[in-house]
Amino acid sequence: xxxxxxxxxxxxxxxxxxxxxxxxxxxxxxxxxxxxxxxxxxxxxxxxxxxxxxxxxxxxxxxxxxxxxxxxxxxxxxxxxxxxxxxxxxxxxxxxxxxxxxxxxxxxxxxxxxxxxxxxxxxxxxxxxxxxxxxxxxxxxxxxxxxxxxxxxxxxxxxxxxxxxxxxxxxxxxxxxxxxxxxxxxxxxxxxxxxxxxxxxxxxxxxxxxxxxxxxxxxxxxxxxxxxxxxxxxxxxxxxxxxxxxxxxxxxxxxxxxxxxxxxxxxxxxxxxxxxxxxxxxxxxxxxxxxxxxxxxxxxxxxxxxxx
Length: 308
Hints:
Blueprint: E1 4-8, H1 26-39, H2 49-52, H3 55-75, E2 82-85, H4 90-97, H5 102-119, E3 124-130, H6 134-144, E4 150-157, E5 160-166, H7 167-179, E6 184-187, H8 200-210, E7 221-224, E8 229-231, H9 234-243, H10 251-260, E9 265-268, H11 274-282, E10 287-290, H12 296-304
Parallel strand pairs: 1-2, 1-9, 2-7, 9-10
Antiparallel strand pairs: 3-5, 3-6, 4-5, 7-8
Helix pairs in contact: 1-3, 1-5, 3-4, 3-5, 4-5, 5-8, 6-7, 8-9, 10-11
Organism: Methylopila capsulata
GO cellular component, one term: cytosol
Family: Belongs to the fabD family.
């Protein structure tokens, strides 16, 4: 039974000051210092609104925050049985699982963010449709296709489906969705049409870069949110990291898998509680906890508490 999961959010959950607000812990200081050395710039340069508004800055900050918070939690003795990351969150998940070095993760994420930003600098993005099921949103995407390229992207929860594509098409899908009874059509803080064929060239470049990276079999169970499966080999995890940018995130199915694995408690690394909320929506019996909303001591006590 894999009782405790660590969840790593994707782009859109970042917020200014998230790195400075991490716990005052030696593992956090070490992770931020290592990131500064690898990137050749102070981590504080990634922690303001301007940096976090850019794809590369946001993804790097989330990677640093995820690894730093996880290392502090583990250093304090919290047992972590399984990790899962949403989109770019797969990279810090792979680091914590022991499959990828932190330095290599930072290099790959920097490349990923830069390629994504360059691939579609203007006029594209992602919109979350809340309140309609996947089949209904798929029909709306088909109807809106004449306004520009648009695709079903992330299946975050039963009633939260994200679409990705060109601005005019996103606007049209939102109009159709609200007319069909959706509670909300929310434009995400993401400038790139991620998790669809529009960014397939980014995945190809990442696959090339991955050939020069040393990967290891995970020592903590690694769940792919792209496949909603536990990946057990270095090769499978490398493929997952390279290709997830251009394929849908299946978080709804990933949450179900966590339940099947026996997860009873899920911690989410900074910033916020997005994944915890989505997981709880699918698995109300799983207790979720945002690490930036509790102390490390409280989190460790919670992780050791009897459950079941």
